[in-house]
Every structure is written in C-alpha cells, then in structure tokens.
Hints:
Layout (H helix, E strand, L loop, with lengths): L2 H14 L3 H11 L1 H10 L3 H4 L4 E2 L2 E2 L4 E2 L3 H11 L8 E2 H10 L4 E2 L2 E2 L2 H4 L2 H6 L15 H13 L17 H5 L3 E10 L6 E2 L2 E2 L3 E11 L11 E9 L5 E8 L1 H7 L6 E6 L15 E10 L6
Antiparallel strand pairs: 1-4, 2-3, 5-6, 7-10, 7-14, 8-9, 10-11, 11-12, 13-14
Amino acid sequence: MDLETALPRLSEQLSAAASEPDRFTRLRVGMPRLYRHLRRVGDERSVLKRWGRSVNTDELANQDIVAAEILSLLGEITGVPMRPPGFHAGIQHTYGYLLSRIETPYGFKRDRWIQSTIEDGFGLPRQSLQPLPRRGTLLGNLTVFLSQLSLRDQPPVKIVGSMANLNLDEIAHINGHRIVESFQLGGDPKKRQSNFKQQPRNVQLRTDLFPFPRSTSDERNRGLLVYSICEGTKPAKLITTFPVGQTTMDEWMDLSKMGKRQPIRLRFNAYLNGFPTGGICGERRLHELDANPLS
C-alpha cells in the first residue's frame, strides 16, 4: 500500500462522511490495519500517560492541522477525549499528523512517519516508527524510544512491539544537549480561587537535541529534536519530535540566547494551561545530556 497517497485520500473520505458512524465504517473498510492499531493504542495506558497536550493550530500555516471531525474520531476509537483547547499530544502528533492534509514550509506533517529518517539515524527496526509497524503501534514504539532518550530519569515504559528486541540501554547512553527554559506561572497573592491563594507553578520547557549516531540518506536532517514539558515535581510529558538539520541544532544551542530574563514562548503546538499569549520572561540554560539523568 502506498501510504503517501492512501492516507490523504482516506483523510478526505473521512471528512466527507455524513456522520461519525459513517466515518467509523470508512476507516474500518478503507484502512483496517490502521483502525486495529488505533484500538490497540487505547489499551496502552502506560504509553498514553507519558504525553502532554497540544493545540491543533499550526503557527506557520496559520490553520488547523487536523480536521475536527477526524480528531473526534481518533478520540472515540482510542477512548482518549480529543477536545480543545488541549489535545492528547501523542495521538495528535502521530495519527492526527498521518491524517493531516495541510502543507507547511517544511512539507506535510505525515512526512516524518512516512520516511525512515529517524529509524535509520538511530538504527531502529525497519518500519517501527512508520504508520503501520509489523509489531506494536506507531505511538507505542515511539513512546518507548523517546522515553529512553528524553525521559531517562523516569521508570521505563513497558516494552511493547518492535522495541522488545532493541537494546534500550544503548539508546539511553546516546549523548545530546538539552535546552531548559524555566519560568513560574501564577502565584499572584491578589488572585484567589476557592478562598485559597493561587499557588505558583514552576515550569520547564525542555528541548532535547540528539545528533544521529548513524548516517542516513537524508541530507537535510542531521539529528532529532524532542520537546517536553515538566511542571513542578510531576514527571515530564512528551509533546512532539521530528528530525532537524544542523543549522536548527546550532541555533538552539546559541550561547548568546542563554541566561536569565530571556523571552520564552511555547513551541511546536504545545498547550500549557495559563501560559500568557504573548509569552513570558524566564531563564534559558544549555546542558549536556548523557547517561546521567538530568533533574
């Protein structure tokens, strides 16, 4: 099956359906393996809870990334409500992107899962991070992999699918860099809720950059970006990931942009309740990310 053409065609058919039951039928008949994978994702609770929330608007294309009726369908099948303003980032950035039809300056959102750049760059099993892996699900395999890279200070996710035969300890020792943007939300003593002072929230936006340890045929991209959010003492939540070029990695690690009183904004469609529309002032620091977990 040529997924590069089959997925946008399926997306158009789903949007054209007259009702949600009709959309269910079109998905089950049009791409039954995708339907079965989505049902399986709903049972991967340890996978689902590793993700934060994201919005459905692309800031560059200035339009919705995924049709609202398709997001609703994904939510019904997986059992994860997909309602604004904050959608489940894992489902949104995998299956939502597969069924997105918008084109951005960087191409289509589904390209990162149609192509094998990430698999090749890290020596992962073939098709493990593609729409319909032979073992496991795209979201399950991706979550296990990213948890070893960027959530290595947390207990590992239950190994599922294609990652069961992978040396995860080797992945956990891959070196990279982490840009931590720290700030505080709330804490205004004049604001009260239920007769209690609003408590401040310490937040970290974490951008991890990992150069590919193996060569790939993709000359545009040289590494992987992983974006996550950590609130207070809660475990960090994944938001998104995608391949990036050397120029992008160099820009993120620009030392002139580090330090206190830096302008901070949410990126990559992340959603964070209470974050100011115009951004916030905070601290940005660059760390080496190695086998020793960062707090």
